[in-house]
Amino acid sequence: MSLFFMFSFCYVSVSFNSFSPTLSELQFETNWIRSISQERKERDIMDQFDGGQGGHANVHNDKFNSSSYSKNDILEQKFDSEDDAHAFYNAYAKEMRFSIRKDRLKVDETNVPRKRKWVCSKQGRRAKKHLDRKDRKRPPRDETRVGCRATFSIRYDKGVEKYVVTHFDNEHNHPFIEKRCVPFLLPHRCVSDAVKAQTKAMHNVGVKTGQIMDMKVNESGGYGDVGFTLKDLQNKIEVERRVELKDGDAEGALGYLSARANADPLFFFKYTVDEDNRLGKLFWADSKSRMDYAAFGDVLIFDTTYRTNAYKKPFVILAGVSNHFLTTIFGCALLVDETFATYTWCWKP
Known about the structure:
This protein is α+β, with helices and mostly antiparallel strands. Helix content is 38%, strand content 19%.
């Protein structure tokens, strides 16, 4: 349910010319082509690590053989970019069955990375202030950081115009996880652009996210071979939906409501934006709805359709009954949540 479709509850006619199927198909094809190009680019980056060319490592994701590289071999590696170094160390970590995270970064005056350090995800320890809290209502989570000192550092060498390895420590103070659990570590999970484009196309024809995930599991042969979890896919879809709302429908909806207010002096609407300048709460009522409320507003029916629209926002309909026992709409609202403060905002003029 789009914002424009919701306006029909207030007897507002809407033009759907901007949502033509042809335009949607063209946008899907464009995103699909871009996603394929991005995947090819990522494969090309991995193929640049050719064992016989200038000390570059031969890394091919799951095919990376860590046993064929000594510590000195890794210290001799050179990379064209920070992303290449990250891909190398992440592939090494996947083969060795641990996960990594980015640590320190040093950039120059043009914001180009000059030094970067990666550490094991179990590096460091949890601050004691979080463990010694007296007002804790729930037991603390299991300790995940055990002070591991495994690190990987690079710096940019102007002489060779590449990133060189300056430090590599492969000594861990903890056991590695089982091989079957490796694909579920956060650094080794990723929703590709091709999957996002395919998911969006299937959503447009009514396929649910859980069903799409089941299809990907069947295609891959198991959950460990998909490359992401159901939650990863849901989060990625939510991010894309927020971007679309921010850049497209929100601006169009507010522009349409402003035009209606200029043409109809009794038309009323109000809205809020969040800290990221995204549309938050939205309320509107046209002149007929306001006159009906003045005449038949003794009894107010409050109906919430819980997040069944495309933006996952509670859609509220304020309705009543006329003297002919017919349902009449007093106003509509899109909310961010169902708290007392949000409903208070909705009732205030």
